[in-house]
Amino acid sequence: MDTLQAYFNTHKDRFLEELFELIRIPSVSSDPNHREDMYKAAEKLRSFLEKAGAENSKVYETAGHPVVYADKIFDPSLPTVMVYGHYDVQPADPLELWETPPFEPQIRKTELHPEGAIFARGADDDKGQMFMHVKAFEAMVAEGVLPCNVKFMIEGEEEIGSPSLGAFCEANKEMLHSDVILVSDTGLINKETPTITTGLRGLSYVQVEVTGPNRDLHSGLYGGGVANPLNILCDMVARLHDENKRITIEGFYDDVLEVSDDERAKMNLAPFDLDEYRKSIGIEEESGETGFTTIERTSIRPTLDLNGIWGGFTGEGAKTVLPSKAFAKISMRLVPNQDPAKISELFEKHFKSLAPKSVKVKVEYHHGGYATVTPVDTPEYKAAEMAMQKTFGKEVIPIRSGGSIPIIALFEKVLGVKSVLMGFGLDSNAIHSPNEHYSLFTFYKGIETIPYYYQFYSELKKS
């Protein structure tokens, strides 16, 4: 591994510049105006994989955005690790809140990152984290120390729920055959604490539409006599939780997997400073379901959150309008045993029951996925634990993440393969928000750690 460190030191500036090339492409999967950018990003990534020493590199068409595949097969008898990541990113809006342009990556020093951090959309999620694997692979191939077979499958639809990847996996099972799927799209407790994510929440994402009169009306002439869809929508959303912040949808908690008191106690031993948590996001008091700690609320409990609401006039100045329609986007984070399709049906039935006869309600299901839990007694997990302990010099802490990567459960169902979530992001990195960033420390730490995963995994599979 000494030769790898020398390679990293020699090429670290180039690693960054190549990552910047990828980041500069605004591959926003949810916006049809960026469809050409999706192909540019996919081809750029394919070329980087080919230059890194991968073979069979190809951009595959899907019903949506393309998938990038490449591999390096030394010996079919050796274990095979498949790296999964995504090159698509969230929209950059609101643009006015960015301190620097979102697709012009810049390195800035901060109090938390005195060594510097990359500020740009996708710096962490997931271009920065995914690119660590490309560069670690490149170094191992260049130095002739890659101990197992490696495949890459990098998609362009994770941020919209991976709607095309299931069919791609079904159609390419033989090509995608592997022993483990290695993912870096999760995070660390903090920069100093090695962390492996052992669970992810599932997701159900819906959009609702509330319609009142057949056109926008003058709020003076009609106000007080006609139902206002915006007012009604706000009231309906407010009634989705009770006074204990518990979700009011009938049947919502029926299948929730309850975590034992012993496991809950162990979870709460993880380093967590509630005062620092509040300070980091600028709040004076946390909020959530009564009877659970913040760590538990954000990992093992289901949630329902309003992600956006609009209708009527939202421009500068004033316009006295009573809107015909009001809209909202709502996400529900799910825990093991909850079925996203069932939850969506329960939501629609309940939400419509909250509406008065003065409005019509439409619920549209966007996407979702199942929660997943990773066993911690397998060679696949133990290799990650050993790798992170090697580079951080500390005992690894397993955590359950509140986030969702819906495709992880699908991999197990379609490909029959478990995933290991060895991420290097931080909660403070502002992913999905303005001023997303990724520290140089964790970027290089990831590149340093990944080769050890291959080494230890290969050794454990031999024993």
Polypeptide structure, described:
This protein is an alpha+beta fold and 463 residues long. It has helices spanning 2-23, 35-51, 127-142, 165-171, 219-222, 229-238, 261-267, 274-281, 294-297, 340-353, 379-392, 407-414, 440-462; strands at residues 55-60, 67-72, 80-86, 106-108, 117-119, 149-155, 180-183, 195-200, 202-211, 217-218, 303-311, 321-322, 325-334, 360-369, 372-373, 397-401, 419-421, 437-439. It is globular, with a radius of gyration of 23 Å.
Arithmetic mean of pLDDT: 96
Total number of helices: 13
Helix coverage percent of residues? 25-40%
Mind telling me the CATH class of the largest domain?
A: Alpha Beta
Distance between the termini: 21 Å
Shape: globular
> Beta-strand level of the residues, as a percent range?
15-25%
Class by helix and strand content? alpha+beta
Second-tier CATH architecture of the largest domain:
3-Layer(aba) Sandwich
Largest sheet: 6 strands, mixed
Rg from Cα: 23 Å
Read across the widest sheet, the strand sequence of neighbours is 1-2-6-3-7-17
Overall structural domain count: 2
